[in-house]
Structure formats: structure tokens, C-alpha cells
Write a structure and sequence with these properties.
alpha+beta, SH3 type barrels, 6-stranded mixed β-sheet, 6 strands
């Protein structure tokens, strides 16, 4: 993809955050000394210019979104945590097959375990951060509902004219809708983080076959059971003959 071409087509586009509405308009992009685009410059509603890392920008069809820090953390966790788990499991298998020396195995397994712990701690902190933000949105919804109740009462008794009422109610309903959407989005992200924490690495066909294969002890036990059944069958046949 031609980054420069795509970036130039985005200048003047409105940028949104899911569940929070519009955040501003793309003014330009910031390059490093090599000419590679690193940041996007957005003019907010109050006319303030803010820069954001390019990786925070998401393009979905004709719409442009700015990822929140929570969404970015989820993206990193979704990529790194399952991959690290798989690598650890592969390392265990290689050690079991004597392909990786014990000293190397012990050194690498400690690194993997440390990485996994750090990522799990990050995931747990992320869940707490999500719950806090979801609570903020819940409080906002209640505030908007209370404000609407006041507006409806004043409009009903005639202290607020029709034009002012309509303008105010539209603003309140828009605020409630955005807060509700963002709260639902946060809860969906929380669910995804929880799933990542609970997921176990997939077992390869070879490992599955190895796990399902009967052990020597099981084979011996099956053989004994088979011989016992054969002897029992012979014994029954002898008694029938004697009769």
C-alpha cells in the first residue's frame, strides 16, 4: 500500500472514536527524517491541534477512526499473549524430545514465563481500567437522564420554549447515545480481554496423537484383559462339552 498516497487522501476527513462521536478533522501528517509518516495531526472541535501515532488511525471504508489507548492495548495483547503461549508449549515439546538441551530450556522457559506474567498483569490492569471507564459512562448516562427529566418538566410547564427545548433534547439524546455506545464497546473489549486470559494454546495434531496414544502400561493392561476374556471363553466352552 502506498502510505503517502493514502495519507494525502485522508486530509480533511472527519475522525471519530467509536462510541464517542467525532474528535476532529485531519489537518496533515508528520514525517520523520527519512520521510516516513509517523503521526497524524488532528484539529479538535475547539480548534486545538493534537498529534497521534499513525498506528492509532484506523480506516474502515469511508470512515476514519482513532483507536483509544484501551483498544491499542487489546490489539497488542491479542497478538502477543497467544503467540507467547504457543512458543512456550513448543519449547516444552522440543525439550521433551531432547532437541533442546536442558540448560537452554530452563533459560528460555524462565523468559517466556516472565513475559506471560507481565502480559497477564497488563491484561488484569486493562480489565480494571475498562471497568472504571464503563462506570464513568454509566454515570454520564444517569446524568443525561436527570438533565432530560429537568428539561421535560420545565418544557411541560411552559418555562422553556419549543425551539430551545428541541435543540436541548437533541443534544441530550446524542450525548446519551454516545455514552451508551461507548459503554457497550468497553464491555465488549472487557469480554475479549477475559477470553484472551482464559484461552489455552492449541494442541498440534502430532501432540494430540501423542496424548491419545496408549502408554506401555495401558497396552499391557489391555493385553491382560484380552487374555482373561479368551480364557473365560475357553472355560465356558469346556463346561458345555462335558454336559
Amino acid at each position: 500500500m502506498n502510505v503517502d498516497f493514502d495519507a494525502s487522501k485522508l486530509i480533511g476527513k472527519t475522525v471519530k472514536i467509536r462510541g464517542e462521536g467525532e474528535v476532529g478533522v485531519i489537518v496533515s501528517f508528520i514525517m520523520d527524517t527519512s520521510g516516513q509518516i509517523k503521526e497524524v495531526l488532528i484539529e479538535g472541535k475547539q480548534g486545538i491541534l493534537e498529534k497521534h501515532p499513525m498506528e492509532m488511525l484506523q480506516i474502515k471504508g469511508d470512515e476514519v477512526f482513532l483507536s483509544s489507548s484501551i483498544e491499542k492495548k487489546l490489539e497488542v495483547l491479542s497478538e502477543r499473549l497467544p503467540t507467547t503461549r504457543k512458543k512456550r508449549k513448543v519449547l516444552e515439546r522440543l525439550s521433551k524430545e531432547k532437541i533442546v538441551p536442558q540448560a537452554i530450556f530452563e533459560s528460555l522457559i524462565k523468559k517466556f514465563d516472565k513475559m506471560l506474567k507481565e502480559m497477564k498483569d497488563t491484561a488484569k490492569s486493562l480489565v480494571e481500567e475498562i471497568e472504571e471507564q464503563a462506570k464513568v459512562k454509566e454515570d454520564q448516562i444517569k446524568t443525561f437522564q436527570m438533565a432530560r427529566a429537568f428539561l421535560e418538566i420545565e418544557h411541560a410547564i411552559g418555562t422553556v420554549d419549543e425551539e430551545t427545548y428541541k435543540r436541548s433534547i437533541v443534544a441530550l439524546l446524542k450525548g446519551m447515545k454516545n455514552a451508551q455506545q461507548r459503554r457497550l464497546e468497553l464491555l465488549r473489549i472487557k469480554e475479549k480481554v477475559t477470553q484472551i486470559l482464559q484461552e489455552e494454546p492449541e494442541v498440534s495434531p502430532e501432540e494430540k496423537q501423542e496424548e491419545e496414544a496408549p502408554t506401555v502400561e495401558q497396552k499391557g493392561q489391555e493385553s491382560q484383559e484380552k487374555e482373561s476374556k479368551e480364557e473365560e471363553s475357553k472355560a465356558i466352552a469346556v463346561r458345555i462339552t462335558q454336559e
